[in-house]
Predict the 3D structure of the following.
Amino acid sequence: MITNAQLRATFLTPQMAYYFERKLAPLPLAEVEARIEELLKYLNIATHSHGGIPFTEEIDDVWHLWIMQTKQYLQLCQKLQGGKFIHHSSNDYEEYTDKDLRQRPVDLQRAVAMLRAYVVNYGPFEADRVKYWTVAAEVTRSLGWTVDRLNAWLGAAPAATSPREEPALEMAR
């Protein structure tokens, strides 16, 4: 299991930590770190899952800030699982070529597989982190589940329900 401290130590340079603290001020440091950690989790999982962005605008904003530092973003992508550059496109941009994009339903199989990959690789969702993952937040809200119930469901699910199921990740060296 990969801890939040390991994520920061592996992927976040002191210079980028400083940059995020400045750009995300006046947020408390713990909130800045949480947003960075959730983005790093997604970017590692994204190597195995393609499609829409499954998290909130707060995490997307961190991604935008990282991308603005092009050299550092390239270095990050090279260290991530798969070592490939991860492109980012806005839904507004994508809508130009796909007018039905906003009406398309969420791919629940993909979304659940991504949430399972999260739990396998990073441990159970913490109560204060579910809010960043749109499907996890919607499941807990609409079904009236606690975070513990969500984690139990994700951990108890069959190991491979789809050919697109994400494998466990390894820490970048």
User: Anything to note?
Assistant: Residues 29-46 form the longest helix (18 residues).
